[in-house]
Amino acid sequence: MTAPLLPPGGSREAVRRMPDARLALVPDCGHWARLEAHDRFLEELTDFLSGLEA
User: Fold this and answer.
1) I need a surface site. Which of 2, 17, 29, 45 has the fewest CB within 10 A?
2) What is the 3-class SS of 11-54, one letter each residue?
3) What is the pLDDT of residues 4-37, one digit of tens each?
4) How far is CA 19 from the centre of its chain?
């Protein structure tokens, strides 16, 4: 069973509605960014978390 490709438009709309949300589109990556693009995932996550207030 495969999941259809979801266009990024829905994600962009969700981010637009959430004040502190960010969207990182990772080319050639499926649903498991933390495994398929480990370094990029950690970079995006670290950048996001470092911008949060304690």
Assistant:
1) 2
2) HHHHHHHCCCCCCCCCCCCCCCHHHHCHHHHHHHHHHHHHCCCC
3) 667 788 889 999 999 989 999 888 888 888 999 9
4) 15
